[in-house]
Amino acid sequence: MFELLKNQLKTIQSSLIILFIIVILVLGFVTGIHVINEVPLVVLTSDVAVIGEVPIYTGLLSQLGIFLWSATAAICIYSVQFIKEKEHKAFIKASAFITIFLALDDAFMFHEIVFPELGIHQKVVFLGYGILMLFYLLKYYKVILQSDFILFTLAMGGFGLSLFIDNFLPNASPYIAKLAEDGFKFLGITFWLGYFARTCKQYQV
Prior knowledge:
The chain is mainly alpha-helical.
């Protein structure tokens, strides 16, 4: 048994180091926010529902969306190593980066709170996101058109409709301003996941 443990430790040594570094960095970041900004540790470490004393289903659709973003990013990152064609590999890498960024934006409200508090107007943020997506589409449109682009188009359509409602119909009824806006966004995320799950599988064949 000792020999088995010794051999396994040698095998996973680099993975152990990387994982411990990640944990230390995250905990260090959390501790830094606590010390510098005097934010209570319970606010930084506990579940949002517990801190806010709200029902566990609070933000249900948003939470599910973050799960789907994460699943898409994980599929793309894992699949890259099995994709041989350079252009396909580059497309999936870029898509993983965009997915991670959008997931972080969704989780930590970059465009709603973080950037505006830094003095960057939300419309400027949206413009920046739009330029990023435009560059992405122009660079990889040929690759996308060779794939199951209907799924990709439905995803982009969902995102577009959600942004349209958010910017032009913010004071409409709750069913439009919230259910339709967040519903179209969730539709976009779901089809985004479906598209990349299929595409990554096809690129590995």
